[in-house]
Amino acid sequence: MKRVLRVARRIAKGAAGRLKAMVPERPEGPGTPLEVVFEENVLPRVDDVLVEPPPPAPGAMAQAIPQVILDEPETRALLGGNSGGTDVPPWAHGANGVLRSRVDLVRLPGVWHAPAYGALFNDQGLVFHKAIHEALYLTPTLGLLPGVKVEADGPVFRVPDDVPVVDRATVFMAWGGLHNYGHFLIDCLPALATAMGAGATERFPAITPPLLPWHRELLSLMLGDQPQPRLIEAPLVRIEDAVFATAMDHFLHAPNAPLDRVRERILAAAAIDPAGGAKRIYVTRRGSQKRVLVNELDLETALAARGFTIVRPEELSVRDQIALFHQADLIVAPAGAALANVLFCRPSAKVIELQPSNFIGVWVRNIALLVGVDWRAFFAPSPLSETEVYLEGHHRPNAEFSWRLDLPAFLAFLDAAL
Predict the structure, then answer these.
(1) What does the alpha-carbon distance between residue 101 and residue 106 come to, in Å, rounded to a whole number?
(2) Which end of the chain is more exposed for a tag (fewer CB within 10 A), N or C?
(3) Which residue pairs, CB below 8 angstroms and at least 24 apart, start in 79-83?
């Protein structure tokens, strides 16, 4: 968590953007109070946001991908009885079905954009929820945004000096995607793919803050010979006409199209031979301090005796991670960002996710079902111990803890699944 904070602040400071136009210096004033708003509460719905002339402030939104619901009987037929452990949640067996969320394309005239946070807000102080939501984990007060100061009545924005101006741009990078492989692959890339599919990026070129090598590798695989996003180094930029897709807000919890298109493009570019590679893999988290599985070495020893290869995806190139998951027949892994690579599994693969009870989530299940992978989970009571984490005075539970797997029970579950 400390490393995430350091990286976020370093990127947020940035260097001055090399853009010709600048917002003129403004005298110090009372500033603009900021308020996070839900897009559907302040923006009219239209058939197409890309028509000209642009919508008046504050903007407009249009459906790009319709919502889909996999009903409960069908979901139970796919999942029922497959998961085990302690206190298995009903959704693991298919209760309530599966939501695949709607994706909207949003167009906003005259907005400020903090690239390191995904934030988009206008001169009236409206901070658009779908763009900022992931960053609210780091800065729930909005106090880390450039030009923002938290005062007695809340956050207030004052325009800094020398802010670069961009005429038109597509924003697709959420804060989570800067620091988390899963959020970038499952939230940000589908947001970019949505804009591309609508034809937006032809007139609204994609922009991004400074990226790491693994970001660039994934983007290169997905985009192929398409233009790469324009790098914005400035901590704040003025966009006169902005577009973004709502997939950038936690799309991994209810993934839908165009995630399948992201998968297709990346696999086609990676050109993986499915016949190669290890067929049984265990994705270790040993060495991580965030969610420590205290008997993980014992688990690895037992799995190695069953023919599993122990792997550390974070030590591999993106292409090698894709190959690792695409070639595997059986994957066992504790919950974590590396399981975003389930997106690249073959439909014949089987994934067994180890979930501590204070850190359970449906996102890997939902990606697996979208791809057609056989997903199941084993649940363990937790935590054994926990480190209290606070960000801007807000408690962030389940950020750092330790847990233990009932090894005999899990191995019996695994052997039955095999």
Answers:
(1) 15
(2) C
(3) 79/365, 79/375, 79/376, 82/374, 82/375, 82/376, 82/417, 83/376, 83/377, 83/378, 83/379
Element (H or E) spanning 68, and its range? strand 68-70
Q: What is the pTM of this model?
A: 0.92
d(CA 234, CA 24): 15
Q: Which residues on adjacent β-strands are paired with residue 114?
A: 119
Domains with residue ranges and CATH for the chain: 2-63+103-248 (no CATH), 280-417 (3.40.50.2300)
Beta bridge partners of 128: 37
> Whole-angstrom Cα distance, residue 38 to residue 32?
18
**To the nearest 10°, the Cα dihedral for 326, 328, 330, 332?**
-80
What token pair was written down for 256?
A: 């839908």
* pLDDT tens-digit series, residues 189-232: 999 999 999 999 999 999 999 999 999 999 999 999 999 999 99
Q: Cite the DSSP H helix spans in 14-71.
A: 39-42
Burial of 226 (C-beta count, 10 Å sphere; 0-12/13-18/19+): middle
Tokens 């907005």 -> residue: 111
Give all strands of the β-sheet with 280-283 in edge-to-edge order: 84-85, 374-380, 350-356, 330-334, 280-283, 309-311
DSSP 186: I
**Three-point CA angle 314, 318, 322, nearest 5°:** 100
pLDDT, block means (10 residues), the chain with 418 residues: 42 39 64 98 98 96 98 96 96 97 98 98 98 97 97 96 96 96 98 98 98 97 96 98 98 97 98 96 92 96 98 95 98 96 97 96 97 97 87 80 97 94
Q: 3-state secondary structure string, 75-112?
A: HHHHHCCCCEECCCCHHHHCCCCEEECCEEEEEEEEEE
* Residue 109 β-bridge partners: 241
Q: Are 98 and 255 in contact (CB under 8 A)?
A: no
Residue 75 contacts residue 88 (beta carbons within 8 Å): no
